[in-house]
Design brief:
CATH class: Alpha Beta
Strand content: over 45%
Number of strands: 7
CATH topology: Thiol Ester Dehydrase, Chain A
Number of helices: 1
Largest sheet: 5 strands, antiparallel
Distance between the termini: 14 Å
Shape: elongated
Number of domains: 1
CATH architecture: Roll
Strand order of the largest sheet: 1-5-6-7-4
Radius of gyration: 15 Å
Structural class: mainly beta
CATH superfamily: Hotdog Thioesterase
């Protein structure tokens, strides 16, 4: 059985991302950060935090997302994508996730991942 002892609740990570055209939706007159793209960034920062600590031939996959997209972020905005690992239950992981622009919360919620062998 693989050892996941390096994966511990309380760990955090963040990445700063510039919103560009590839992260937007244009359903409005002004392109803004799209909800699917925001969720993808939340998943990425969570996966990046844990995957580097796993034994060879293991990775994580997301299986649940519960987030609210609360405010727009326009092209050029510097957003911070943050996560905190709240729970480790065997292979199951629960993250708190948040995207901010300065003091403004763009989106926040929870994301679950599980550790799998490749």
């Amino acid at each position: 059985m693989a050892n996941f002892e390096n994966v511990k609740a309380g760990m955090t990570s963040e990445q700063v991302v510039a919103v560009d055209q590839t992260l937007t939706v244009s359903r409005t007159m002004v392109p803004v950060l799209g909800t699917p793209m925001m969720i993808g960034l939340m998943e990425k920062v969570s996966a990046d935090l844990v995957d580097r600590l796993l034994p060879r031939n293991y990775t994580t996959v997301g299986y649940e997302v519960n987030v609210k997209h609360k405010a727009p972020a326009r092209i050029g905005a510097q957003i911070k994508v943050w996560c905190k690992l709240l729970e480790v239950d065997g292979r199951k992981l629960l993250f708190e996730v948040r995207v901010t622009e300065g003091d403004m919360v763009i989106g926040e919620g929870f994301h679950r991942r599980t550790i799998i062998s490749l």
